[in-house]
Design brief:
The protein has six helices and ten strands; from the N terminus they run αααβαβββαβββββαβ. With about 190 residues, it is of the alpha+beta class. The protein has one domain.
């Protein structure tokens, strides 16, 4: 009996020491060292700032933050839209997935220029969307959003987008948070 007990204790000791030490420790996105590698600011541009108030909502902020190479936001700030505000947001999305029309990721500026540049600036992997549709909508009042800049995203072993200074808007439930939407189709334009 005593020998069996010693064997069990020894096994627990071995599993605790060797078994747990093989698991990687995940990087904390709230870590100050991680925040130092983020680009850009979470403060709003002057022309938009008057339409929002900063608030605290750690669960919502944590939903929007991503680990390096996983996309989402590198750092962010939670804001709530004010009564009477009239903010237009834009989202490029995937026509083959109608549910992506009201996804979680939006921008203050309408996409323009090269699609490849837009993908890089907003860390949008080709597997996630062909970016062939655009929707512009007005944000309703009293809606909480997270504004921040993009975290790096590893799309494949050949393509990784680095962190970006472009501001993105995370909306938990865009279908309930936006109104007055207008749809646009992507078209070929070669230069």
């Amino acid at each position: 009996m005593e020998r069996a007990l010693k064997n069990i204790l020894f096994s627990i000791l071995i599993l605790t020491f060797y078994g747990c030490s093989s698991y990687p420790i995940e990087k904390d996105t709230q870590n100050p060292e991680a925040a130092q590698s983020c680009l850009g600011a979470t403060t709003l541009p002057e022309n938009i700032a008057t339409h929002f108030e900063p608030i605290k909502d750690m669960p919502l902020l944590n939903e929007a933050l991503g680990a390096p190479n996983k996309g989402k936001l590198c750092h962010g700030q939670v804001y709530k839209s004010k009564e009477g505000s009239n903010i237009t947001l834009f989202r490029a999305w995937n026509s083959t997935n109608p549910n992506s029309k009201f996804g979680k990721w939006w921008a203050f500026q309408e996409p323009s220029g090269k699609v490849s540049t837009y993908r890089s600036e907003y860390e949008i992997c080709y597997q996630w969307s062909p970016l062939d549709k655009l929707v512009s909508c007005t944000l309703k009042p009293n809606i909480k959003v997270v504004v921040g800049t993009g975290q790096s995203a590893e799309c494949s072993e050949y393509l990784t987008y680095e962190v970006s200074d472009k501001q993105q808007i995370y909306i938990e439930d865009a279908s309930l948070s936006l109104t007055n939407c207008t749809l646009f189709d992507g078209e070929f334009s070669w230069k």
